[in-house]
Design a protein that fits this description.
The protein contains eleven helices and 15 strands. It has helices at residues 3-12, 27-45, 48-63, 72-85, 142-158, 180-186, 244-262, 300-320, 344-358, 375-404, 411-418, and strands at 89-93, 97-103, 109-115, 166-172, 193-198, 210-212, 215-218, 220-229, 233-234, 269-277, 284-285, 288-297, 324-328, 340-342, 363-365. The chain has a five-stranded mixed beta sheet, sandwiched between helices. A four-stranded antiparallel beta sheet has the order 10-12-8-13, covered by helices on one side.
Length: 427
Amino acid sequence: MDSLRLILLLLLFLPTCFSFNLQTPSHNEHSNQSSSLKQQILELANSPRMVKWMTSIRREIHEYPELAYEEFKTSALIRRELDKLGVSYKWPVARTGVVAKIGSGSPPFVALRADMDALPIQELVDWDHKSKVDGKMHACAHDAHVAMLLGAAKILQEMQDKLQATVVLIFQPAEERGIGAKDMIQEQVLEDVEAIFGLHLVSVYPIGVVASRPGEFLAGCGSFKAKINGKGGFAGIPQHCFDPVLAASASVISLQNIVSREADPLDSQVVSVAMVDAGSTHDIIPDSVTLGGTYRAFSKKSFYALRKRIEEVIKGQAEVHRCSAEVEFYGNELPTIPPTTNDERIYQLVRQVSSKIVGEKNIELAPLFTGSEDFAFYLEKFCFTCRHRLKKQRKRKERERDIEVPKTISSRRRSHYEQQPLLQPKE
């Protein structure tokens, strides 16, 4: 059973991890509890029966990959296994998703998420469990992610009498489209949840190594599509045309200047044009050209600044060449994913627990990576919820403070008193 899943499982059995109001046990109690739970989890996870079961699940999913919102067989497999375990669940969620709960039914609520969809890729490696669906493959390890979360469900169910929390298991569709997490959030899967964890297998680290980082981690990702309209005609007399190919070419070059000449070199950003669709005849200037690409950045400020400049540059270059341009950034075909920013307090907690499982020498600080993950939507939702909660707490503190202020305080002293910073809520 994968070490990362064990980390999250162990984390869930420590009652002080997520609820701000629980009392912290003594150091010795905490240490003994951690050691005992770690041993129980490892024994369950590494039993031959568990390993065989999880391997068979992963291989079954790998043989029948399904694209975004087509994960019907995968969803049926998940429900089949949850039924066998006696775990209750809700289905369908966001069309093909499954959401299960294990534990006390009381706070704190903690979520674990696995993505389910495959990629439109032909599997070329010949092995016993090769994809049986032409043109589709689990090339991004989502088959393993599902198997790992089912493995977590099995252990959690066997140890639920020790759980002092409620674990929400989120089997999410359409991560590869960048929109599955948003659809799950809209169906209230994060209701009452205080923390959420996701993980991803990668091949750059040896087995047993845990890598992450606090704060900014994965880049925000946006796509753009622009149509430059001109006036086509015979290429031999270009003076009678408004050449959209020339305008598009100038746009592609100018877009590269955003990163090389406008962005801070220490603030990593990417603008890449990956698609150009123009005419089909060598001596005819087309009426229009379509181009598209991606932009990425690690901070929200840089991310949205990039989007603004992309539109300005394309429209500006079109106008210089006597053309016009339409630029699109939104829609299901062009999803915008915010940067993935890990909560620093939760990161430290995961790092601490990780060291108990794999040892301090197997903990690595992951570098920033310009790939994107729609898990960012869950984190963004938590940021909004936390801000809302803090705002409510501050208002409550204000009301309590006003009630407690002695009426004999002079207006001048009271004004000074009310201007003092509010107490921050205890963590």
